[in-house]
Input
Amino acid sequence: MKHAATAALLLAACGGSQAPNTTTSSGPGLAIQPSPEQPPPQDPAFVFRAGYANPGGMWLPSQMALPQHAQTFRDMGLDMPSSRLADPLEAPLAAVVKLNGCTGSFVSPEGLVVTNHHCVQSGLLYNSKEGEDLVENGFLARTRADEKSAGPSQRVMVAQAYRDVTAELRAGLDAMTDAAARKDALEAREKAMVAACEKDRPGIKCDVSSFFRGDSYQLIEYLELRDVRLVYVPHRAVGNYGGEVDNWAWPRHTGDFAFYRAYVGPDGAPADYAEANVPTSRPTTLTVSTEGLRPSDFVMVTGYPGRTERTVTASEVKHDVEWFYPYYVEYLQQRYDLAAALAKDGGGASTTAIKAGVTLQSIQNALEKNRGVLDGLRQGDLLARKDALDAQIKAWAALPGHEADKAKIERLEALLAADRATARVDLDRGIALGGSRLLATAIGLVRLADERTKPDAERKPGYQERDMPQRLAGQQSFLRSYDRTLDRATLRLALVRALALPAVDRPWLATIVGVKPTATIDEAVIDRALTRLYGAPLPPSPAPGEAAPTKPAKVPTVALEDEALRISLTKSATPKSLAKSKDPFIQIARALMPLILAEEAKSDALAGDLLVTAPAYVSAMRTVLGGMLAPDANSTLRITYGTVRSFNPGSPVEADWPFTLASQIPAKDTGADPFDAPKPLLAAVAAKRYGPYADPTLGGELPVNFLSDLDITGGNSGSPTLNARGELVGLAFDGTIAGVSSDVVFAGERTRTIQVDARYMLWVMDALDDADHLLVEMGLTPAL
Output
C-alpha cells in the first residue's frame, strides 16, 4: 500500500489524479488522498524537473544572466523573469539579509526577520540567567515593548549596493616582485576603498569580497542595523527536536525557526539599542506561502553561505584527507567530550552547564560535518573526480600559448607544498592561542594598542576606528557566553595537546605556562600555570538531590573578566599602559606578540604569492568547465536552485519520501530530551488539528520538514527556500551527512538540503504558541 501512496504523491505532482474518493494508506496515522474538488493544475515542466540532475553551484546573482541559467529556468517553469534573480537589489533577493554567521529574510514591512532557531542561540543566551533559561524554554514577545535585545554584537546586514572593483585593485600587482609588498599594496587599496565608501555614512558598512581565489573583487555596501531584538523563538523541544541524534540526518521533525526584529533610531537611521528606537521600515519583503510543495517542484535558496573549497587543487584535497581532517576531527572530539561533561554539571541547572550546552551544540555540528566530509571524500569516486578535473586544468595549461599560466600553476603547487610542511605546528599554535577567550581577548587588546600608534589608514584591517563599535559590542556581550570553568578546560586541552610537538616547534607554550624556554613542561606544569591564571578549579555543582556544600568555594578574581576594564582597555590602552598591567593574560599576550607578528609576516608573504598564482588555476578551471563555475562561498549573497527531491524518488518506503509528517512525531517521541515534544503539540497531532496548514495531497496531513537537492553550506542556515514565484515556503537548516563532502567536490547524487516547511512553522505559531499577532503582521489569518 505504501507504493500506492507514493504514486498518489507523484500523480499529484504531475498534475494527474486518482479516482474521486480513493484513499491510499501508508501505515498508522497516514492516509494519502488527492483532493478531487481541486485537482492540481497541469504542469508541463514536470517531466524536465523530474529528470533534473543538479550540477551544484552557489551562484552569484550576476551569474543568473548567463544563458545556460536562463534556459534552465524556462525549462523548470520559473514563474518570474529570470532577470529578477540577477539583480540582488530587487525582490526577492533584496529581502534576504546577513546575520552573524547565518541568513535571515524580512517577512514584514516592520523589520520582522525570520531565521533558524539555532541562529538565535546567542540572543537567548544573552537574555538567560539562572532560573530563566530561554535556551530551553524559548521566548515570545506579546508586544513590541516586550521584545528583548539580542545583544550589542548582533547585526542585521542589508546589502544595498554592489560594484566590481577588480581592475582598480589588481592593477600592477602581477608586476610586483616582492610578495609581501604585493599583499600590502592590495590591502592598502582595499582599506582606502572601504574608507571612501563609509566616509560620513555612520550607518553603512562596506566590504571588499574576493572571488575565484583573487581573480575578481566586489565592493559591497551594507546597511548595518545594530538594534536587533528577539521576537519569537519556540521551545527547544520544537526548535531543536531530535538534537544531536538527528543532526545531519533524515528523516527529521525539527521546527528550526525563530524571529528577530531590526530597529532603527527615531530618525530612521541605524542606531544602537535604545528604548526610543522604532522598527525599521522595509520596502521589500517575502510573501510567506501556505500553498506548499510537491515532489519535483522547483525550489531555490538564496542566502549567505560561508565557505566551500571547490576551487582548491587536487593536492590540497589530498593533504586534507590524509592529515587535516583526521587530526582536526580528533581535536573536535576532545572538545566535545569536555563540553559534554560540563553540560551535565548540576543537572544542567548551572550557568556553566547552560553555556557548555550551547557550546556543545556548535562543537557537535562541526565535529559531525568534518567527519562527514572526510568519510565522503574517502568513499566512492570523489577524489578521482577531483584528480580528473585537476588533470584537465594542467593539460589545458600545457597547451601552446599558455606558458604563463603553466608557470603560475606550477609555482602555486610549490607554494602549497612548502606551506603544508608546517601545517601541524601552525594549527596547534592557532588552537592554543585561540583556545581561551581570555587569552584571545588579551592578544587582541595588545595588538589593538600597538596598531593604535599608527595612522588609522596604516592599521591592519580589524584594528581601525571603523572596527571599534563592533569590538566594544563584543566586550559588552562577552560575559553572557563566557564561563571560567569552560574557558580553563578548553585552554588546558590545547596546551596538553601541544606537548606532543617537539619543544622547538612550540616556544609559545613556555611563554603561556610561565617557565624558561629550556624547562621541561608536563601536565603538572600546565595545571600549576592554569591555577595561577584562573585560580583553583571550582568544584562541580551538586547533582539534583544532593546538598550544597556548607561553605561555598571561594571564587578568585580574574581581571579581564571585568567588563569595565575590558572596555577601558579597548578604548584607550597603549603599549606603555599595558606594559604596566599586572594582568597575567595581558603579560602573556605581550610576550607572545613578536612570535605572532613573525608568523603573520610569513602568512602575508604567502598570500602575496597566491595573489598571482591561485587566480591562474581557477581561471583555467572556469575555462575547462565552459564558464559554468560558481566561485567558492565567502559569506556573500548566492542563489542555488533545484527541486524537491528525496534520495530515492518514487520509493514506496516512507522514510525515503521528501516530506516528513507531524503524525510521525508521536511514534518517534520518547518523552526525554531530545525526543520530548511539548504535550500540547502531541495532543494537537493526535486530534489532527491542522486547520488550513494540512496538505490535501498528503491525505490531510501536516508536513514538518522536506528534502531538496539544493546546494548549501554553513552560513545558509535560516536562508529562505522559495518556490517558482519567489514566495517563502520553507527555511533551510541542515544537510544530510552523506552530502557534506560536496563542500569540496560536489556530488549531486548524495547532496540533500533539509528545510522546515513553512506550514509547520505557521501551525506551531497558530495552534501552539499563540503568536497570532505575528501571523497577522506577515499578512496571514490565524485559524486555530
In short: The longest helix spans residues 584-624. The chain has 26 helices and 20 strands. The longest strand covers residues 216-225.
